[in-house]
Amino acid sequence: MPTSYSDTYFPVLVQIVIAVIVAAALVAISFLLGKHVKNRVKDSPYESGIAPTGSARERFSVKFYLVAIVFILFDIEAVFLYPWAVVYRELKLFGFGEMLVFVILILVGFFYVWKKGALDWSHEAPGDSPYGDPDAAPQSSVTKNAA
Amino acid sequence: MPNAVPLSWYLILSAILFGLGVAGFIFRRNIITVFMSIELMLNAVNLTFVTFSYQFKQVDGHIYSFFVMVVAAAEAAVGLAIILTVFKNRSTLMIDDVNSMKY
Amino acid sequence: MVKLITKEGLIPSHVNKLFYLMAPFVAVALGLISIAVIPFGPEITIGPVTTWMQLTDLRIGILFVIAVSSVGVYGVALGGWASNNKYSLLGGLRSSAQMISYELPLALAVAAPLLLANTLSFRDMVNYQSGYWLGFIPRWNLIPEIIAFIVFMIAGFAETNRVPFDLPEAENELVAGFHTEYSSMNFAAFFMAEYSNMVTVTAVATLLFLGGWQPPFPAPYSDVVPILVFALAGLIAVYHGLHPARRMDKFTLPATGLVFLGIAAIFGLSLFVPVLKTILMALFWFCGKILILLFVFIWVRATLPRFRYDQLMRFAWIFLFPLAMLNLLATSLIVALTTK
Amino acid sequence: MTALIFLIFACIAVFCGISLVVQTHPIASALSLIGVMGSLAILYLQLGGEFIAMAQIIVYAGAIMVLFVFVIMLLNAGAETPTFQASTFVKYLGIVLLVAFLGLISFIIQAALPKTEGVVFGGFQGTAADVGRKLFTSYLLPFEVTSVLILIALVGAIVLARKEI
Amino acid sequence: MPANFAPSAADYLRILPEIIMTVAGVLIMLLEGWLGENKKRNLSVQTFVAFAAALVSAVAANGNPGLSFSNMLIVDGFATFFRVLVIAVGILSLFSATQYLKREHAESSEYYALLLFSVTGQCIMATANELIMIFIGLEISSIATYVLAGYLRDDKRNNEAALKYFLLGSFATAFLLYGIAWIYGTTGSTNLSTIRIALLTPGSETNVILAGTAAALMFVGFAFKVSAAPFQIWAPDVYQGAPAPVTLFMSAGPKAAAFAVFLRVFMTAFGPITSRWEPFVWSSALLTMIIGNFAALMQTNIKRLLAYSSIANAGYVMVAIAADSQIGVAAAMFYLAAYAFMNIGAFAVVTHFSRQGEKFVNVEDLAGLGWKQPVTAALFSIFLLSLIGVPLTGGFFGKFYIFKAALDANLVWLTVLGLLNSAVAAYYYLRILVVMYMKEPGEATLSLQPVGVGIAATLWISAVGTLVLGIFPSVVLNFATASSALVK
């Protein structure tokens, strides 16, 4: 098996190229093969009959953003874990102590996020305008004590 | 094709990317695009770190660029939070409209 | 698939073309890439060349797979955005939010076996799992890491938007979520991407937890198993062929029965040819495990009801993520104490 | 062989960088930034930074850019009016200036750098294990301090983005 | 496996202040979740206890100075001086914040937690002996300050201030990082002492050019943080937009820590190549003083005026750095201490005076304050006189030592222009005094309530600080000169 560095990566490059070609072919075929009939009815967005209300650009709900934030910061923690896991047997107990401090501090952040109710999507009816979730249920996070 | 790429090519590439980031920061008006050009500059810095770690054959460069990534992520998180609050209050993303405090 | 391909590739006018076409392209391309790193069998020598039954073994194979899966979110997100339809935008957003929040427990569940094997390459990981405790229990990662395996499978379901997690597609208002605007081929492209993701997730699960191509019990017995399995399958097929339920079965079933018997014969033969034996055995056990896991996927699709969106998100963050984290800490404590 | 790969991906990176600056619609510039990150990851592989290349894809392309795409989609930032209607003269002057500046820098780099042998694909291999070993021994303090940094980013983002106090 | 890496007890003692503050910040954040509404008040008391403990441990850590954590951290006189200064600034800004938060109905623990974390970041910057540690400490304190600057989310000006501070802040950090990358490239390490040795060895000429460009890049990053000349455009808007106690904190805390890092990097690491970075520090010092003083003349908004005055003060400290001598470093340290006290005092009065929603922030609103609240006006005038540099106040000795150091380094032109500038500065400070005492009390001063406990404490402590530095400066100066020997 080719052991030198570049030989291990060459097949990956080949595989990526093959994957890209196959995917492009898939998308292109349908474009070429299918019959092209342009008419007004087909052009309207698929809406089971009713014309789509409001512009497609619906206002935003902060919930999505909060999930993405919490995801980034914990993703970094996950990526920190990988070199730690690989070198763990050499670090023995001291490695465990290091990581414990790191993880505890970040779990504090997690509990804080949990307490502030950023994670639960209690009242997310898809239909209503999600801008600023004017949800009726008083979602004041202070009163909700820890589960 | 020469098999070895002189190290300075990488450094020139990172200088070009850094320059593009600065140009993006100065010329663009949409706040999010300005923020993206800052991320581009940080990427250019990462490339420089990894290039020099190749030159010295040490792994320190990788560790520095890893810390730069962590900081860039934390900055992106807080930055976009600020951009969200600005959008909530002014519902515009153009830089020029965000200067209510006149001279 | 073929029927879908030929159907008209309608592209509604109000959609911004570039992203509309790019989304399925990204989804399918990413689905296929990670197969490059998955090892199917052990080192074998065919004549002069000793090679691994594997396209390539990166020293950071496992990270490569996680990286590919983390970029997979764009296919879904762009799909939702490109079709400019309010509901598909919401559907796209929600399914990418779901994929994100399940990616985290996935990453942590993968970290647990790494702790034991201290390597990022699939090949060393599988070699670590060879050998047996007390003679018959296989040293798979599954036994010490049962929690991580469960978390990995649940996150695997969610990552590929399988039931019970495919709410964004199924809700009535969303009408198949971000797929609404896609028709024919692009629709098929997304589903193909989903299936290839599923295969990748199950393959990684077998490699990390079920010991790749290692047979579950020691050598002498494990060689016999494939022959028995195929022989049995062949007999059942032939038996049904004799009194067919449907008219056509008279011919098809006996044919399949013969094919199975043939394979059993090949396995029997391979016992004597060492090179052939290792290839076939490895392939049998590896594909067998993947098929079992795929069977679990499909079986779950039939039984479990669909989660409501907020239950689904809360489940990921408030249950799976802390569970994966605690499991990781517990394993590291045990490993720290046990290492000399 | 290395030079070929380097040239391809360097051009991709520069092209995507330019498109980041030039594109009107933020989503297009976000995608071109992802393009830059992908090509940089491959250049890291060339320079022996295996772990860093994968971390770059997971952290940057897989997490930060997803947040950017989310915010752009959520804030439905429409296409920007073309940047300030500077006369074409100013634009060209800008471009010429930029090219001259970059040329100057590359000349300095070219001349100043001590002549080292080129980068060979397998010349230096910084594996994840080496990174881990060094990270958790001599760089212990930055590691522990980064957790405080992440905690602050969390608190800050929540304080600013949450609906009510 | 280098077994000796495990940090010994001494290492932990050296970073004890940071540990205490982080633990306190974490506790406060968690408590806020479980505490009921009423117990919010004593959160500020807990923060004060944490700061006090950190102060004590910082002084104790000076007991056995030395390197720690595989020479990432260095605890010496210089580091302890800035640690104590930064924690004191934290305590003073804590006092002035309690009333302000209650008044703006933004009473919540995040403010205190972020304040604690920002001060931790600054302590890390003060003690860092490695460029990467400096970068991370800088990031911690600036991210916490970005959030604090935009704390009152619904107030448009807060948002704008936070946005401007953030964008320009990360832009400057990118330059700083690029400089660090180049220094790593030329010298092979980021440890300040190894860089110094590497630059001392008569390496090839190319090294010096590259090190020079790297120093220039890093200067851009530091100049921004310190709001020095070419990069001070953000300061007036952000100081005016941010909530008053945060401006108070921002103008003293992060600026002092940034100067600490500026001094340490440029004196120890770039010592050998002073001829490279000397010119642009010199010119930037001059430019900062001119811009700061002349722009302040036309200001009507008190916060903007104090912002320009803080830019001018940064210019004075830059003059001390341009002197590039041991006395210069000592003078800079002394001036930073004096500046911190006078600036905090001035901003405390503005916080108190601006009332709900910061309505009254124009200089004219201060009319007749002398009659309505003589004590506050008297204290305010002490701060203004000290800013001018009247003898018997900290400001005087600060400027005196700086210009003496500049003269010793025969930067004659710089000293002359510096003196001219402080003369111009006297004009706009006196203008405030005139408005306070000579004018009839307008409706703003009549509706002024008495001074709250927190603000009063800040005012008195900073007044005492300014006077002590003015009357017996030798105590602080000797400590500064002793510790500056370690750095140069």
Explain the overall architecture.
The complex is a heteropentamer of chains A (147), B (103), C (340), D (165) and E (488). Chain A is 59% helix and 0% strand. With 147 residues, chain A is mostly helical. Chain A is flat and about 55 Å long. The model of chain A is unreliable at 35-59 and 122-147 (pLDDT under 50). Chain B is 76% helix and 0% strand. In chain B, helix 1 packs antiparallel against helix 2 (31-56) and helix 2 (31-56) runs antiparallel to helix 3. Chain C has two domains: 2-214 and 285-338, no CATH class; 215-272. Chain C has helices at residues 2-6, 17-33, 61-71, 73-82, 86-117, 122-128, 146-159, 167-170, 184-209, 219-242, 249-270, 274-303, 309-338; strands at residues 43-46, 49-52, 132-133, 137-138. The longest helix of chain C is centred in the first third of the chain and has 32 residues, at 86-117. The radius of gyration of chain C is 23 Å and the shape is globular. The interface between B and D is large, with 68 and 76 residues.
The assigned CATH architecture of the domain at 5-45 and 59-115 in chain A is Up-down Bundle
Largest Cβ-defined interface: A-C, 74 and 87 residues
Task: Output the structural class of chain A.
Answer: mainly alpha
State the CATH topology of the domain at 5-45 and 59-115 in chain A.
Methane Monooxygenase Hydroxylase, Chain G, domain 1
End-to-end Cα distance of chain C, whole Å, is 56 Å
Alpha-carbon Rg of chain C, integer:
23 Å
Major sheet characteristics of chain C: 2 strands, antiparallel
Which assembly state applies to the chains in this document? Answer: heteropentamer
